Fold this sequence. Notes:
Layout: E1 3-5, H1 8-12, H2 16-25, E2 31-33, H3 44-58, E3 70-76, E4 81-89, E5 95-103, H4 113-125, E6 132-136, E7 139-143, E8 148-149, H5 158-171, H6 184-195, H7 203-210, H8 214-229, E9 235-238, E10 247-250, E11 255-258, E12 265-268, H9 269-278, H10 293-304, H11 314-345, H12 352-380
Helix pairs in contact: 5-10, 6-8, 6-11, 8-11, 9-11, 10-11, 11-12
The structure holds adenosine-5'-triphosphate.
Pathway: Phospholipid metabolism; phosphatidylethanolamine biosynthesis; phosphatidylethanolamine from ethanolamine: step 1/3
EC number: 2.7.1.82
Family: Belongs to the choline/ethanolamine kinase family.
Amino acid sequence: MGEEVKNYDALTGMEDERAAEVKAEGTAPSIPSSSMAIDISLPLDQMKPRIVDLCKDLFKRWSFLDESCFSIETVSGGITNLLLKVSVRDDRGNSDSLTVRLYGPNTDMVIDRKRELQALPHLSAAGFGAKLLGIFGNGMVQSFIDARTLSPSDMSNPKIAFKIARQLRQFHKVAIPGSKEPQLWNDIFKFLDKAAALKFEESAKQVTYESISFQEIQAEINELKDLTDLLNAPVVFAHNDLLSGNLMLNDKEGKLYFIDFEYGSYSYRGYDIANHFNEYAGFDCDYSLYPDKDAQYRFFRSYLESDNPHEVSNKDLEALYVETNTFRLASHIYWALWALIQATVSPIDFDYIAYFLLRFQEYKKQKEGCFSLAQKHLSRSPSCNSSRRHGRPPSED
Length: 397
Ligand SMILES: Nc1ncnc2c1ncn2[C@@H]1O[C@H](COP(=O)(O)OP(=O)(O)OP(=O)(O)O)[C@@H](O)[C@H]1O
């Protein structure tokens, strides 16, 4: 069953034309793959023999080991996936740990797995996240990261914020083969179509759902898109989900890890930063924790010039401030619509409709301030909309 994938394109269904681009931008390393799929609903003790078979299938050096050499524990039920830690001790006493991620049911409604699989080896090869070790029918195997997961309040700690900004800058420089067109609005419109065509079994939920005006949301999206189109915002390969749970820190080594690239795509750098700032709100969704202008400027200085943060020009700071605080609204719309879709498909017991309402309400609360910031900026710099930049952030290190 197991097979060494010499050509990664076979796995992602990349076409010849695109395969040529991969060569030009750095060929992805070969990743072992298995056609096995594992039923995510099985209890851990019944899942264990399947996981052991999977590991043996992917990594031939373990194929003769007894099942007792493997131990398995749950790392996280996650909002989206099931993550297991597998520890292996071979007959010579060598030990190894890795993670097995099983995709949650219906996650393909909100996650483009093909896009994720195209980007992952390139991000992994550039040193981001856990190392990609193998792929199987409904998940992937990655290295185990020996680090703690950040809490929302860690993200505003100036030392940690500096590390995040600096690493985000590097992340945004990774070139992923294929189209460099920003996907943000395509994704939002896809979510809107799906969200507008839902049906809830529970009548109370259906009643709340029917009170939502998708025409109003569509009009808001069009208005916001028109405004952001004028900003000439740089496009980068963005993480798009930089919340505390996707940031891990090894305090001893001072090493920060970005993980979980499921939502990664070409998008606007200001969107990625704003989405991260929105996550300062934490699990209680307290949006008063969104960073103030001073904290944002510190972050921007580290992002734009981590070696010489005081040399960043006011013009660059202001442009990034405006971009970030306009795209801040897009992040609320994106996750509001995401939550509505989740409300019908996710097996997780979470009030997704309430989350939709909360994010859309926050959008409305912030709209006036964000729009007037962008409009004032545009009236001062009319050249903003003369052309659209694509690719990497403007000043390379
Ligand atoms: N490679 C890894 N090594 C060690 N721990 C990990 C690794 N990957 C993830 N984790 C831990 O598992 C948690 C959940 O991981 P992840 O965010 O990738 O899953 P998820 O199902 O996509 O969750 P969510 O949808 O909530 O983002 C992380 O917050 C982190 O604590």
